[in-house]
Automatic annotation (TrEMBL):
Chain residues that bind S-adenosyl-L-methionine: Q268, Y297, E318, D363
Entry keywords, A to Z: Methyltransferase, S-adenosyl-L-methionine, Transferase
GO molecular function terms attached to this record: rRNA (uridine-C5-)-methyltransferase activity
Pfam families: TRAM, tRNA_U5-meth_tr
Organism: Ileibacterium valens
An annotated GO BP: rRNA base methylation
PROSITE patterns, alphabetized: SAM_MT_RNA_M5U, TRAM, TRMA_1
Protein name: 23S rRNA (Uracil-5-)-methyltransferase RumA
Amino acid sequence: MKKNSVYRVVGESVSDQGYGITHIDGQTVFVKNLLPDEEADIKIIKATKSYGVAIVQKRISTSKDRVEPVCTQAGKCGGCSFLHMNYSSELNFKHDELNHLFDQVDPSIDVKPVLGMENPWNYRNKAQFPIRIKDGKIVSGFYRPHTNEIAPIDHCPIQAVMINEVFAWIIENLPLRDARGLRHLYIREAKTKQMQVVFIGEQENDLKDFARLLQKQFPQIVSVVFNKNTRKDNVILSDEYEILLGKDTITEDCLGLKIELHFKSFYQINPVQMEVLYSKALELANLSKEDHVIELYSGTGTIGLLAARSAGKVTGVEIVPEAVANANENRKANHIENAQFICMDASEFAAKNKNAADVVFVDPPRKGMTTQGIHDICLLEPRRIVYISCNPRTLARDLKDFMNNGYSCKLIQPVDMFAHTTGIECVALIEKTNEPRLLNNKTDE
Ligand SMILES: C[S@@+](CC[C@H](N)C(=O)[O-])C[C@H]1O[C@@H](n2cnc3c(N)ncnc32)[C@H](O)[C@@H]1O
């Protein structure tokens, strides 16, 4: 296989990044915009010893699963990888991938069909748009895949309608002098319709007047913040900020729970599927009024506060102080007496509270948990652990560690939180087995 040569191939499957997969001379080739069973002439744009990357030069036959992408930036911005595939095929594809992945952990795990969206558009409640000045004009949109180059957009079909409108208005009306030094524009919309705008940049250009104009145009904006970020890495938010208008939080609603949400606090990006996901997690937890529930990685406490409705007592543990403060305020605002939230590292808390839990919820970041952390959590001795994960690969890795600590997983419920992208959220039910513990070397140390 040589760079720039053209081959006629048939798509065999799809990679987890949304590329078509085919083989040439026994080598795997990842082809942009090729679906299984499609025949095409492809041009190799990258050839390494172990794999190739190609683009379609001419499509000879078209899959029944192919649809016309609804976005002008399809394939250009790094966001949606499945805009060329119909939604039900995308859900089937995600299910097949998960089946394959978890089969390698334990073939007895029952991976349920993916719970998809009825309307898989305009679902995202938060966007962080990189912003620059180029040739005397403001340019904003999303990064092109694997670059720092911006693919400009006027609207994005998976963002909430109002986020698109506020974004377009800001880009059209923000004076150039106020845009100097800005790095990102962050817009969030709650289910309550309240909105929040955060300007992130190296210097504050006195954006207060513009914030007032913005709110006049969109009265649902209750929070405008300037976040000063001079960091050299790609972390978007820093700790230093000034409220330009209103407050630094917005009010969210999840399954009837009122949540005061700080702009720095994590919140699921798909509020419709979040309710599906958390309802499923609570159902699997099967709580009783005698249970002490520990929620690790609790963020603003949504799962813990929902669990408090059916549990005896809830303790939430989270590392970001603003999120813990939000969680405690949310507890008070919702008149919940049987919950508390603590600012601490999840593993450290678990190690200090042996045998303290009946049921544990964990919802870690993408990187998942550590072997030591899992060992410590198992020392809490819960009969059941409900693991919510936005990264099936780290979930699969972590399940093996849970198994080494006397727990097993029989059921995984995937929920499509990230329609048209490669992402998928899973809830895993992990239960204590009667088998003796087989601690691995690392956790024995
Ligand atoms: C995927 S979010 C889940 C948040 C929460 N379950 C919710 O729905 O709002 C992961 C959370 O873990 C927190 N976190 C990250 N590392 C942590 C650690 N070592 N100990 C405790 N919390 C941590 C993050 O700040 C974030 O709020």
